[in-house]
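USER: Fancy drafting a protein?

ASSISTANT:
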Amino acid sequence: MRVVVLRAEGASFSAGLDRAMFGTGTEGEPGLAALAGYDDDALDATIADFQEAFTWWRDPRVVSIAAVQGHAVGAGFQLALGCDLRVLADDA
C-alpha cells in the first residue's frame, strides 16, 4: 500500500481557474473561448478528459491525504474531496 500526501506550496491549496484559460489556454489545453465554440459531443469529451485526472484516486492500493491550507477553489476543491482524508489548516 502507498500513501500519497497532496499539498500545495504558497498561501492556497488551489486558488481557482488558471487565468491563462481566459486567453488562448495553456499548453495542450484550450482556452474558454475555444471551449465555448465546441459542439456538445466535443465539449463532453474534453470535460471527461479533464475529469480523468481525478480517477487514479480510486485505486484501493493508494491512501490519499489532502493537506489543505488557504483557498481550495474549483478543481482543487474537487481534488481535496476526492482524497481519502483531508487535513485542514485553520485558514482553510
